[in-house]
Specification:
Length: 76
């Protein structure tokens, strides 16, 4: 059983965490380079929020949104 858990340890430490080790060593040279993935995710989230707000504004101006408090059956 010990060999099984050592095999799992070897899989993660020697193979799956290698990209993270590369990012850790990259951070010593450039902070922006090490956080490049985070910047991409923040840009994607910002674009999604802007798109969502624009869609909310379109439905609000068209008056098609049901804002009645009894819109759901459990609120009756």
């Amino acid at each position: 059983m010990k060999a099984f858990f050592e095999g799992i340890q070897s899989l993660f430490v020697d193979f799956l965490f290698l990209p993270l080790d590369g990012l850790r060593s990259l951070e010593l040279r450039t902070w922006f380079g090490a956080n490049f993935i985070n910047w991409i995710f923040m840009i994607i989230c910002a674009v999604a929020i802007v798109y969502w707000i624009k869609q909310l504004r379109i439905f609000d101006e068209a008056g098609t949104e049901n804002q009645d408090t009894t819109a759901h059956s459990f609120l009756k």
